[in-house]
């Protein structure tokens, strides 16, 4: 695949197999050339995110694996006298934004002849992987931390995946998945494999269509950071295509208990020595070492954006505030709403808050 290369040794992604890291040097694969935004009239008839298929970089023969993801509502609210739009990603088929990326990733896996794969997740990515694997006829194994919400584990199991609970921190679960890959298994990692990113970029495309132009600012929760990276690249591609004039200000929100990107943004490399994988109700962002952290930092900085860390005691009240307005989301999704009082006065209109996961899973 000419679009992808290793960030370390610059070798292209192999034409066969699905390595999650470069077989030559162990580096991370990413897009050397971001897929061009090209909205053909015939694609407009395709459902959900697949109307943007030409921007996915998939082989032409890759059959879409879809559950109708994308096309989520944009609902306007008033916060402290200003209009704020809420993008309801928790209304995707499995209850989170992960469906956008996983639809593209599983479609790629099928095009490579994969019949069985493993993923690690604290919940939403595992559920999305299990659902799209079931849809695409793949056998799925999902490794989850023992503390993962029971509703999410049950959801993964209901899709027919083999669920293995791992004692220890989130990083321990990821290491177990890498061990499976070292033994010859396919590691369908939403963190390492870049194929999810063009799927996430469709959120940017939808926002511009729904709003009739680019937002002024977008707030998103950040763990691995794939969503904010994909969305940022989506806006960048629209700017390069002349569709929008300016990339919106991107604000990444983390839980203070585990906020490595905020620490780097606020204090530089020295800030990392204070970062722990602390317990938080926002389990979806409990990631101490984001795989694409450098890229996430660059794209947020280039947008003129920032990172915010939310104290633990503010997360559940923010979730409850959203519920009282009719939006029932999980604690991780409430992080951007909790950060609004701190950053809203500094953000250009219109402001969008992305609600990433459903509260029904908790």
Model description:
The protein has 362 residues and is α/β, with parallel strands linked by helices. The protein folds into 3 domains: 1-33, no CATH class; 74-97 and 194-361, Rossmann fold, CATH 3.40.50; 98-182, Rossmann fold, CATH 3.40.50. The protein is 33% helix and 16% strand. Strand 5, helix 2 and strand 6 (139-145) form a beta-alpha-beta unit. The longest helix has 16 residues, at 196-211. The radius of gyration is 19 Å and the shape is globular. The N and C termini lie far apart (39 Å). The mean pLDDT is 94.
Under the CATH scheme, the architecture of the largest domain is: 3-Layer(aba) Sandwich
Instruction: Give the total of beta strands.
Output: 11
Q: What is the strand arrangement across the widest sheet?
A: 3-4-11-8-9-10
Ranges with pLDDT <50 over ≥5 residues?
Answer: none
The overall pLDDT average reads 94
CATH class of the largest domain: Alpha Beta
Number of domains: 3
Number of helices: 10
Write the H/E string, N to C. EEEEHEHEHEHHEHEHHEHHE
Helix content: 25-40%
What gyration radius follows from the Cα positions, in whole Å?
A: 19 Å
Q: How many strands, which pairing sense, and closed or not: the largest β-sheet?
A: 6 strands, mixed
Kindly report how far apart the N and C termini lie: 39 Å
Content-based structural category: alpha/beta
Strand content: 15-25%
Anisotropy-based shape:
globular
Essential attributes:
6-stranded mixed sheet; 3-stranded parallel sheet; 362 residues; 16% strand; single chain; 3 domains; alpha/beta; Rossmann fold
């Amino acid at each position: 695949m000419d679009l992808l290369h290793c960030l370390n040794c610059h070798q292209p992604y192999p034409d066969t197999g699905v390595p999650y890291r470069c077989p030559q040097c162990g580096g991370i694969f990413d897009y050397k050339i971001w897929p061009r935004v090209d909205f053909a009239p015939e694609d407009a008839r395709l459902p959900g995110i697949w109307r943007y298929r030409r921007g996915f970089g998939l082989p032409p023969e890759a059959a879409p694996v879809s559950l109708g993801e994308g096309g989520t509502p944009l609902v306007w609210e008033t916060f402290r006298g200003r209009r704020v739009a809420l993008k309801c990603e928790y209304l995707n088929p499995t209850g989170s934004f992960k469906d956008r990326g996983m639809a593209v990733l599983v479609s790629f896996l099928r095009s490579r002849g994969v019949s069985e794969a493993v993923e690690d997740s604290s919940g939403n990515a595992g559920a999305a992987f299990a659902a799209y694997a079931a849809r695409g006829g793949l056998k799925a194994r999902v490794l989850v931390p023992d503390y993962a919400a029971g509703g999410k584990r049950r959801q993964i199991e209901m899709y027919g995946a083999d669920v293995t609970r791992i004692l220890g921190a989130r990083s321990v679960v990821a290491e177990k998945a890498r061990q499976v890959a070292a033994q010859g298994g396919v590691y369908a990692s939403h963190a390492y494999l870049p194929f999810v990113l063009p799927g996430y970029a469709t959120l940017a495309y939808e926002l511009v269509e729904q709003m009739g132009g680019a937002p002024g600012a977008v707030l998103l929760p950040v763990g691995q950071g794939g969503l904010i990276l994909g969305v940022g690249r989506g806006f960048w591609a629209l700017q390069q295509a002349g569709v929008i004039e300016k990339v919106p200000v991107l604000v990444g929100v983390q839980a203070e208990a585990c906020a490595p990107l905020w620490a780097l943004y606020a204090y530089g490399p020295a800030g990392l020595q204070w970062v722990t994988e602390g317990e938080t109700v926002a389990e979806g962002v409990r990631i101490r070492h984001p795989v694409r952290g450098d890229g996430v930092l660059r794209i947020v900085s280039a947008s003129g954006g920032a990172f915010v860390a939310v104290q633990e005691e503010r997360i559940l009240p923010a979730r409850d505030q959203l519920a009282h307005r009719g939006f029932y989301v999980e604690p991780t999704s409430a992080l951007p709403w909790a950060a609004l009082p701190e950053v809203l006065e500094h953000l250009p209109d219109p402001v969008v808050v992305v609600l990433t996961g459903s509260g029904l899973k908790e």
